[in-house]
Amino acid sequence: MAKKICSTVFLCLMVLAIYLPILILAVYSFTDSANIGTIHGFSVQNYITLFTKPELTQMISGTLLLAAGASVLATILGTLGAVGVFYAGKPGKLLIGSLNQVPVVNADVVTGFSVCILMIGVLGVDKSTFIPLVVGHVVLSAPFVYLAVVPKLKQMDNSLYEAAMDLGASPAAALRKVVIPQIMPGILSGFMLAFTLSLDDYFITSYTKPATFDTISTYVVNATKGSQTDIKTALWALSTIIFVVVVLAVILMNVVDDRNMKKAGAEDEKKKKM
Amino acid sequence: MNKWYFSRRQLCIPYGLFLVCFVAAPLIVIIYYAFTNGQGRFSIENLSDFFTSPNTIGTLAYSFGVAVVTTCVSLLLAYPIAYILARSKMKHKTAVLLVFIMPMWINFTLRITALKEILTMLEGNLSYYPFLNTVIGMTYDFLPFMILPIYTTLLKLDNSLLEAACDLGADTLRTFVKVTLPLSVPGIISGIVMVFLPSMTNYVVLDMLYNSTYIMGSLIGAYFAAYDWHNGSMIALILLLIILIFTLFTNRYADEENGREVHLSGKENM
Known about the structure:
heterodimer, A: mainly alpha, MetI-like fold, 11 helices, globular, B: mainly alpha, 74% helix
């Protein structure tokens, strides 16, 4: 019993340590105070600044747009790669499989730096074209899509594909109608992964971005060096909004998962009865 | 044979080309730059500079220090969390686990900003304890990456082994040391890989917490800002070698599913 209380207390303390900074910032984002510790009046000025100051709104929409674009590209490339490699011979498997590991284990600084040198130093691509930035983000996230899809391919029932072919489907149609639906969960979780990786990235962005473009990460790092307090406190508001969005997304995911699980359970029951 | 037919394996061509162009080629470019000088001639000056300058060697040592301490602290905090969660009979333990790993979906620069405000309030001035603040910041950032792999391995632990140890007369502590701990080594190794390398290179955490000492990542940043791509490439190459040695060494112990893919997908393994 004492052990149980101890472990519960420990878990609670850890949760507190993890969330206290974020929550305190959330509370202070609703005041007109520029420093933590002093209590001031209630105010939503930070939220107004966040959504009206052009440099802030541009930075947020730019981050989202980049993450969406890069993760769609990464999902297409990574999924095609995983499906192709699944049916390919040994050399292809080895080549793509090992190259795929490189960005996964590599430090982001090194990935960003090397992509930048290749694109700007060797190929002479201008950073303002956004090409180095998008390529960098796809390099970072496509390998994770690949890794998310591969296990689903291994679990797939191969005889369904054969059956589709026997019944006269073309290989492309069989792929589209039989293979893709079976690996869809992997593709989706790969996409989510790519999206969050791209949102969170600082290093690759800072080495490949055009000078006038900022994502949330690079903007926040620059803002901590500056002395504009209205921007500093507006970022508290941004942090609070992101926190709320993440909490809602996690709850939503759990609800959907629960429902799917119940559905799957019911279907299993049915099969047993049959 | 007909002229051209669709084959499933051809689907891997675009991704293969992409990897060769943007993963393999940059590595070759880095090696080329690391071993040439400003005039484009072959030179090992960059390499000898790194190992003879007290500054760069000091940076290497400091990054190792930060990384070792951060990894140990994360492990000491993460293991009990993972252990309690994995062994508990709670109904909603995956939900509780999510509470611990959810921070990693919040942008890390914003999380460090929050931490910075709290530390400033507690310490008055951040420059009093730069090393301590760095370790706190890194641990705060990377803790979920340590919890997840350990949790996954502990969850797979075969309960009958523990019962057997118990039946054969081992007490709780002995069972833990002789059975649970050895069996969770793959998870621990994955966690260490996940935390050690980023804490050698993530110089943004130091920057944001006003620690002006360099770690390996800051060197790349500084050379990059000074357009010194040759020395920057040498640092990148040295980091790559450290990563390579690390991966080779840990591959023997690690689980099939290696760190980063597991933890980021999160939901997958619960």
